[in-house]
Amino acid sequence: MNALHHEWLALQAQHERYEALALGVKLTAFAAIVVVADNTLALALLALLWLQEAVLKTFQSRLGERLLAVERGVKSGTEVAAMQLHSDWLASRPRGAGLAAEYLKSALRPTVALPYPLLMALVAMI
After folding, report:
1. Most exposed: 8, 48, 83, 97, by fewest CB within 10 Å?
2. Three-state SS across the chain?
3. Do 4 and 69 form a contact (C-beta atoms < 8 A)?
4. How many domains does the chain have?
5. In whole angstroms, what is the distance from residue 7 CA to residue 24 CA?
6. How many Å from the N-terminal Cα to the C-terminal Cα in the chain?
7. Measured in whole angstroms, how far is the alpha carbon of residue 20 from the centre of its chain?
8. pTM, full prediction
């Protein structure tokens, strides 16, 4: 097995781990509305968890981009330098507002955003 195959296996495992972590954040958000009695604190906690999940999903998407690059290289047989995840990301890393926009874009993805406004509305109604 060559280096790209090893890299793909490691990246895929981490990609799936981020999915599990995001699910854990969602479950924690649900538990927060049950456990936290103060509505203001519960809303703040939900907003923080929403942002945390957005950060996790942003990290996951970076892994996904590298996975796709590795897969293209393996499929086409073209030379792709192995183990360049961070170097490639650093070369295109957004700064300041661009980085914040990347996190916001992740926060607004339907698979991330769906439960949070609903949970916030539920807290507001209680």
Report:
1. 97
2. CCHHHHHHHHHHHHHHHHHHHHHHHHHHHHHHHHHCCCHHHHHHHHHHHHHHHHHHHHHHHHHHHHHHHHHHHHHHCCCCCCCCHHHHHHHHCCCCHHHHHHHHHHHCCHHHHCHHHHHHHHHHHC
3. no
4. 1
5. 26
6. 57
7. 10
8. 0.90
- The one-letter amino acid at 32: A
- Greatest Cα pair distance, the chain, in angstroms, is 58
| Residue 94 lies in domain | 3-125
**Residue type at position 4:** L
Residue the block writes with tokens 């854990």: 24
Q: In this structure, is the dihedral angle defined by the CA atoms of residues 41, 38, 28 and 108, taken in order, positive or negative?
A: negative
Residues recorded for the chain: 126
